[in-house]
Design goal:
alpha/beta; eight-stranded mixed beta sheet; 13 helices; 12% strand; binds guanosine-5'-triphosphate; binds magnesium ion
Length: 339
C-alpha cells in the first residue's frame, strides 16, 4: 500500500494536473509525456475499428470528385452505422451539401468535416469531475449495468484523489457478489483509502448510510459509493438505487453530489438506452466511458452527447490504476476521424 502511493502520485499528478478542480478550469494539461502518448495510442487503437470503418467508407465513396445526392445518402448510412447518431450524421451531410465543394471533394475534406462536427458535439460535455471542498465528504454514487467497469473506475478515481492529498473512503455497496466486496477492498489497499463493507447479502442502503456516517466522522473529502450492476431484475436494481439516494439525503440533504454512470464502449447502441434508463431513474449527473482501449464502438458517445448533453468526465483506456484519463473532445474527434 505505502509503496504504491508515490508511484500513483507521480503518474497521475502529471496527467491530470494537481490544480484545484473547483475553479472552473477543466483541469486538463497539454503535456506530451510518454504516458500521455501511451494512452493516446491506446485510445486510437481502441477506436481503430470505428475509425477504420468510417475512413474506408469515406474513401470508398469519395474516390471520385463529384458530390451527388446518392453519395451523400451513402455517407449518411456509413455515419449512422458508426453509431454517431442521426442528428450528427444529418448535420455532416448538411455541411457537405452546402455547396462549398462544387469544385470537387476529397475524402480528407469529408474527414475534416466529420472531425469538426464530432468535436463540436463533444466540446461542451468534456468537463472534469470537480470535488467541492465544502462537502465533507463530497459523495459520488457510481452506477451502471454489470461489468461496465464501475469498481475499477472507483479504484482509479480513488488513486487520483489520493494523489491530490484527499482523504478518500470507499463503500462496497455492491453487496450482491462476494467478489465485488473483495475487489473494492483491494482497491482500497492500493490507493490508501478506507473501505466500508458488510457481509454479502446485506442491505446496500444500510451499508451506504454507515459509510456516509463514517466518512463524515473521519472528515473525509470524498466518498465513492460502489453499487451492484445486476440484481434479480432491473426494477430491483433501480429501487435499490432510489433507496440509496433517500438514505444519503437523511445524513446530507445535498448528497449525492455526483451520480456517475459508467458505460462500456464496446457495447455500442445499448449504451444509449442505459443512459435513458439510469438518467430517468437515478438522476445521472455525468458519464465515464470505459474500455476505449479495446475494440471500442466509441461513436455512440457522440450520439449520447448530442441527445443528453451530460458531462463526460473521463475515459478508461485500460485496467491499470492510471488508465483513467480526462476526456478531451479534440483528441477523441481526431481518433474517430483519423484516416
Ligand atoms: N480494457 C479495459 N478493461 C477495463 C476498463 N475498465 C474496466 N475494465 C475491466 O472490465 C472488467 C469489469 O470491470 P469491473 O470494474 O469489475 O466492472 P463493474 O461495473 O464493477 O462490474 P459489476 O460489479 O459486475 O457490475 C474488469 O476485468 C476490468 O478490469 C478499461 O478502461 N479498459
Ligand atoms: Mg463492481
Amino acid at each position: 500500500m505505502s509503496e504504491s502511493g508515490p508511484k500513483i502520485k507521480s503518474t497521475l499528478g502529471r496527467i491530470w494536473g494537481s490544480k484545484s478542480t473547483s475553479d472552473g478550469d477543466p483541469g486538463m494539461e497539454e503535456i506530451e509525456s510518454p504516458a500521455r502518448q501511451g494512452w493516446l495510442g491506446r485510445l486510437k487503437a481502441g477506436l481503430g475499428k470505428t475509425s477504420t470503418r468510417l475512413s474506408d467508407g469515406i474513401t470508398g465513396l469519395f474516390n471520385k470528385s463529384t458530390l451527388s445526392e446518392d453519395t451523400l445518402d451513402d455517407l449518411e448510412n456509413v455515419l449512422i452505422e458508426a453509431d454517431l447518431g442521426l442528428d450528427t450524421a444529418e448535420r455532416i451531410i448538411e455541411t457537405l451539401g452546402k455547396g462549398r465543394y462544387e469544385k470537387g471533394i476529397q475524402a480528407d475534406d469529408v474527414r475534416a468535416v466529420l472531425k469538426a462536427e464530432v468535436e463540436r458535439v463533444l466540446e461542451p460535455v468534456a468537463r472534469a469531475l470537480k470535488i467541492d471542498d465544502s462537502h465533507k465528504p463530497h459523495v459520488i454514487l457510481v452506477v451502471g449495468v454489470n461489468g461496465t467497469g464501475k469498481t475499477t473506475t472507483i479504484g482509479k478515481l480513488a488513486a487520483k484523489f489520493h494523489s491530490e492529498g484527499k482523504k478518500v473512503v470507499l463503500a462496497a455497496g455492491d453487496t450482491f457478489r462476494a467478489a465485488a466486496i473483495d475487489q473494492l477492498k483491494i482497491w482500497g489497499q492500493r490507493t490508501g483509502s478506507n473501505v466500508v463493507a458488510r457481509d454479502i447479502g446485506s442491505d446496500a442502503a444500510g451499508l451506504v448510510y454507515d459509510a456516509l456516517a463514517q466518512a463524515q466522522d473521519e472528515g473525509a473529502d470524498v466518498l465513492l459509493l460502489d453499487t451492484a450492476g445486476r440484481l434479480q431484475n432491473k426494477e430491483g436494481l433501480m429501487e435499490e438505487l432510489a433507496k440509496v439516494n433517500r438514505v444519503l439525503h437523511k445524513l446530507d440533504p445535498s448528497a449525492p453530489h455526483d451520480v456517475l454512470l459508467v458505460l462500456d464502449a464496446t457495447t455500442g447502441q445499448n449504451a444509449l438506452s442505459q443512459v435513458d434508463v439510469f438518467r430517468e431513474r437515478t438522476g445521472v449527473t455525468g458519464l465515464i466511458m470505459t474500455k476505449l482501449d479495446g475494440t471500442a464502438r466509441g461513436g455512440i458517445l457522440v450520439a449520447i452527447s448530442a441527445k443528453h448533453g451530460l458531462a463526460v468526465h473521463a475515459i478508461g483506456v485500460g485496467e491499470g490504476v492510471d488508465d483513467l484519463q480526462p476526456f478531451d473532445a479534440g483528441e477523441f474527434a481526431q481518433a474517430i476521424a483519423a484516416g
